[in-house]
Amino acid sequence: MPNNKKMYDKGKVVAGLCIFVVLITFPFWFNLGKAAPAPEPKLSDKAKAAKECVMPKATMKTEHMQILNEWRDTVVRDAKRIYTNPSGKKFNMSLSNTCLDCHVEKAEFCDKCHNYASVTPYCWECHIDPKEAK
Amino acid sequence: MNISYMYSLIAVIILFLLAYVGVKFPGGEVFFGIIIPYLALIIFILGFINRVIDWARSPVPFRIPTTCGQQKSLPWIKSANIDNPSTTGGVVVRMILEVVFFRSLFRNTKCELKESDKISYEWEKWLWLFSLTFHWAFFTVLFRHLRLFTEPVPACVQLVAKLDGFLQIGLPGLMLSGVALLAAVTFLFLRRILIPQVKYISLGSDYFPLFLIFGIAFTGILMRYFTKVDIVGVKEFTMSLVTLNPHVIKGIGGVFYVHLFFVSVLLVYFPFSKLMHLGGIFMSPTRNMVNNSRAKRHVNPWNYPVKIHTYDAYEDEFREKMIEIGLPVEKMIAPETPEEPEEKE
């Protein structure tokens, strides 16, 4: 019937559509009234003074996990501990001693972005944050 | 070469270039990042509702469930309560198994002529396996994306991400769902071009969503593992969208906008295409009906009152004339012929 406006099983269909709309719009009502500003990782004075990390900031932001991964492999497999960055500066390849030396507070630096992006790196299953350990 | 998939492939490539180049123009980021996604979501929701209501207006006058087992009849005959449901509970279980495990596709067989003239039906589970992989992987990927749309991120989303990446291969950790999605889409595409019968019935509307989903998965994987996107910036942007306070974040990169544009195109395309099987599965009369037409009377909903003239009334009207010309009648006019009723046997 082309012009039939009657809906069959109206109750069930409308209930189903309501569930659909609620599920689809979940992010909108879940975050209602909440502001979620991007985190600002806190740089320690030492880090500020150093100006540049192992690599430029943009590279560090997106590639630091791969750099750390390479460091780990180089140290563990090849027993090489010295890393030379493109501008010739030498670093001791160590998460606890080099990275955390500048970025003193894990909670204020690493965790801020990781929590925001819901990333749980397994670094800390072996390494310790000297501050948290105390 | 086949125009059906060539056109679809060209369409997806054009969409890629459109977003990749378009975003570099002034205002391109606002257009592809904010206007298009919002519009797409609105069209998706309204289109979806419209389509479902349209279906709900179609009467289904008869019980037409596909039955795959013994109907409920006498109490001492064992009936298939799920495959031939006679109760709403049976239908619910049947629907859940259908939606979650694609049970009817599991029965898929392959029909072939063997030794040139013998017909044979073979066990064929690959389509079921890859369809199930495809849908579950797509759902997992979609669910994981909630981490970009919620703050704080719910624990269940974190748990799924953890399970998805439990192999801990490489950094950023490899997500199994992404690999499974790409592999399954590739299978579904190859199936369409390698099996002659399937190729014959495949249209542009079959290839286009495959290419589009392939493009979505491909750009996503590209961003996560290879070109590397600033994920905090991306989340800042997506959160601005869902808190209805949209603003462009600089330096997210062209691939991200291609990804977002592909998803927007998929959302717009969705209600007008075969992808509507998402809603359609719940509206399928062959799946969602109780097979109880022998126990309960179902009246055709478009029945209008029909003027009827029963035989009894007809005979009442013409009895005398019928007797006059010797036609047999059910009821004789009482006094005249007492022996007639016996003859009517």
3D architecture notes:
The complex is a heterodimer of chains A (134) and B (345). With 134 residues, chain A is mainly α. Chain A has a domain at 45-133. Chain A has seven helices and two strands. Chain A has helices spanning 10-24, 26-30, 45-50, 57-78, 95-102, 110-116, 130-133, and strands at 82-84, 90-92. A two-stranded antiparallel sheet of chain A has the order 1-2. Chain B is 58% helix and 3% strand. Chain B contains 15 helices and two strands. Chain B has a two-stranded antiparallel sheet with strand order 1-2. In chain B, strand 1 and strand 2 form a beta hairpin. By secondary structure, chain B is mainly α. Chain B has two domains: 3-288, Up-down Bundle (Fumarate Reductase Cytochrome B subunit), CATH 1.20.950.20; 311-343, no CATH class. In chain B, helix 1 (3-22) crosses helix 11 and helix 5 (126-144) packs antiparallel against helix 7. The N and C termini of chain B lie far apart (73 Å). Chain A binds chain B through residues 1, 4-10, 13, 16-17, 20-21, 24-28, 30-31, 34-39, 58, 61-63, 65-66, 68-69, 113, 115-122, and chain B through 41, 44-45, 48-49, 52-53, 56-60, 146-153, 157-158, 161-162, 168, 170-172, 228-233, 235-236, 239, 242-245, 251, 279, 282-283, 301-302.
- The number of E-state strands of chain A comes to 2
SSE string of chain A, helices as H and strands as E: HHHHEEHHH
Number of helices of chain A: 7
What form of chain A results from the Cα inertia axes? elongated
